[in-house]
Amino acid sequence: MMAAAFTGACAPVLGQALAPWRLAVSRSLRATSSSFVAARPPPMAALVASRRGAMAAPAGRSAGARRVWSMAVVADAEPVAPRRLKGVHKPVAVTGPLLEFAGVPISTRPELIRAISAYVKKANLQLAEDKRYFKVDPKLRKILGVDACAFLSISKYLTPHLKKPEDVSPALAKQASEMVDAANAAADKFEAETPYDDDEVTGKKSYKRKAKKNSNKALGPARAKEEGTGIFRPLKLSKTLSKVCGAETLSRPEAVKAMWRYIKLNKLQSPGDGRVIICDSLLKELFGCDKTDAFAMNKLLTPHLSKM
């Protein structure tokens, strides 16, 4: 009771004391997030704005509660790295009915797919029995050319309406190049200004590529082979395997190579399938079967290899 009374009495004082700090943090976060959005090309900025709209404070709250809620969301959110426009995210020229639908002459395939998906959900076209599929209204039928479609199939039906910008006009090619340059510049700036590397709090990998601490790691297999360690360490062969390989000690890879030399020299591969090995008397003694295959041979060799 006393603790509750004390908390109630102190709450207004604490609220007044923290008000300037909250205001400063809010302004700083707004300035930082606006700089990230401004650095993106227009389509990316629109996408980020739509994502932020999804994080709007719940309705029915006071203005102060909504402001504190939004500050907590933005403070807890991780910075979003601007995407480099390459691969499937390269700008493409929009043509035909898709141009009429999208209203932009140049965009990226993922953005167009998101626009159609958003339209489908807003128009309530999803099938009630399976939300992965949707009905196609007259507006979308001009683009997709079907009566019903799966969300995963949208990309396939967009292909006829997408072209390389340079194949449409030099102006679109120039606009696409500017979009790519702006996105790459924004990504470079973000990576240079991101303050953390491998963050223990977020568990995310760094946006900056770290130099390899151990440059010899890439040479691991070659070094292991040279030093005779790992899978390249010498092993003692059984008497039967020694007859096939012609040696008493070999590493596992060397023993497998020796086995294949013996198989090919004695023409023991099946004519119909070279992976199938027809065992002669020596291999029958080694493997205990009439025939085997290349995948099973490694397993059958294991009992005949032992540490020295």
Could you give the order of strands across the largest sheet? 2-1-5
Number of DSSP helices? Answer: 14
- The number of distinct β-strands equals 10
Q: If you consult CATH, what is the topology of the domain at 87-193?
A: MDM2
Overall 3D geometry?
A: elongated
Assess the beta-strand content as a share of residues. 5-15%
CATH architecture of the domain at 87-193: Orthogonal Bundle
Main sheet attributes: strand count, strand direction, barrel closure: 3 strands, antiparallel
Radius of gyration: 33 Å
In the CATH scheme, the class of the domain at 87-193 would be Mainly Alpha
Uncertain spans: 1-7, 32-58, 60-77, 196-218
CATH superfamily of the domain at 87-193: SWIB/MDM2 domain
Task: State the secondary-structure class.
Answer: mainly alpha
Q: What is the share of helical residues?
A: 40-55%
Overall mean pLDDT stands at 75
